[in-house]
Amino acid sequence: MYMQITFIQTLLLTIYAFVAIYDALETDIGLSKPIQAGFFTGLVMGDVTLGLAVGATLQLMILGVSTYGGASIPDFMTGSIIGTAFGVISGKGIEFAIGLAVPIGLLLVQLDVLARFTNTFFQHRADKYADEGNFKKVETMNILGIIPWGLSRAIPVFIALLFGHEIVDSLVKVFPAWLMSGLSVAGRVLPALGIAILLRYLPVKKYSAYLLIGFVLAAYLKIPMVGVAIIGLALGLLVYQRSQREAQNAFAGGVNEDE
Amino acid sequence: MKMSNKNMDTGKITKRDLKKVYRRWLLGGQIGWNYERMQGLCYCFSMMPVLRKLYTKEEDLKKAVKQHLQFFNTEPDMAHLILGANVAIEESQGLEAVETVTAIKTGLMGPFAGIGDTIFGVIAGTVFGSIAAYMALNGNSLGIWIWLAWNIARWFIRWEFTKLGYAQGLKLVAAMEGKLKSMTEAASILGLTVVGALIPTVVRPTVPAVFQSREVTMEVQGILDQIMPALIPVALVAFVYWLLGRKKMNSTKAIWILLALSIILGAFGILG
């Protein structure tokens, strides 16, 4: 009835979680995005469609949301990995996976806070080494910061998957049918949150016309997302060129460096 | 993007040194992030190769290192502009520029964070994230690879930013301000257009209820569709938008509310 998760799979996903949070901080090719994490977990667990669906739903909840100014956000990357893996293990599919991924992501915010807090220790060590003129060690302190960061993601994934079978077993017993159907509704409702958050960030009052244009393009004209993005780019370019022309006319040299 | 102001071959700092700073920030610009000084440790780490070259006396180097260990925080892509300008200033003025450097770091990190978060965070995340999610919901991973390609392109943008910052030095503020402002505006328009299209495509609950009176059956969803397609998604987004504007509300609370609401409405068959 259940699919077993092998130790190799557990290990691969644990390493992925560690690498992904490093990537989120630095190289940022996007491994920490819920959709990429879901995709990778789907590949490892042998159900890509499920991984994509779980990742996409979580992604839509936090579109354009990032750790601005060092704020912690729900850890839907880890949620996506654990949720997808449990979805495959239980054979209960996408609703079950999302139903787990969302609360897991919300709970794991605490570990993000802990990692950021722990690194203060390395900062203080660096101060001390700088006083002593030991500059090599100052550099090492920055690099060591990877440990709290990496572990804050790798440990929950490792523990959850190591006991995956037992956890899923007991979870399936407490998930009644009405809850499952409710969660499938939630999967279709929750992207509204990501969109609403975006509307809070973007200058929606100033440019509400473009929101309406986008809506009509998709709802009435059924233009796919890439097509809409190209039209949006064209509209943006028009405004950019106009404002550059205006700036050139108004701004005839003479620069004040004090702003 | 001309590079006329500085000649990298005559100064103390070579292109190789600048590349070292770029690489260090790309690979280590946030791993030492902490609540006390945020990216301070990482900034110092990235400047280290240049500092070692510029300050040969240990006392000078120590002073510079302690200076750069102070508080710093901005959007990681935009930080390359500041790093580049910082290298140029310290190369020409040395330790006497300490105050100038602190001023340029603290003066620019705020506005640059605002612009960078908008362009590289909100807008790019929205556009590429929407495309990737839209395709993934249909079982297609292509959008993920498109997003990946953009993110790798950003590595090159970040190197260009480092060079641009170096070339502009102190003039950086004036050179970037006007351009970045209108770029942010344009990007916001792109973002809003995509968000408008997202509402009817990815928010997908329906009303399964059917009213029956004698021979006539009325499907609620059919009636709603005649008024406007995606009426329920629009109403939902409007509701959550309003919800987020309330005092003491945050996105985490909103998730719990939506979860509970979905389960209740789903259980009674009002939403499906």
UniProtKB/TrEMBL annotation, chain A:
It is found in: Cell membrane. The chain crosses the membrane at residues 6-25, 37-62, 68-89, 96-115, 143-163, 175-201, 207-240. InterPro entries: GatZ_KbaZ_carbometab, PTS_IIC_man. Its main location: membrane. Keywords: Cell membrane, Membrane, Phosphotransferase system, Sugar transport, Transmembrane, Transmembrane helix, Transport. Pfam families: EII-Sor (PF03609). It is a multi-pass membrane protein. This is PTS sugar transporter subunit IIC. It comes from Tissierella simiarum.
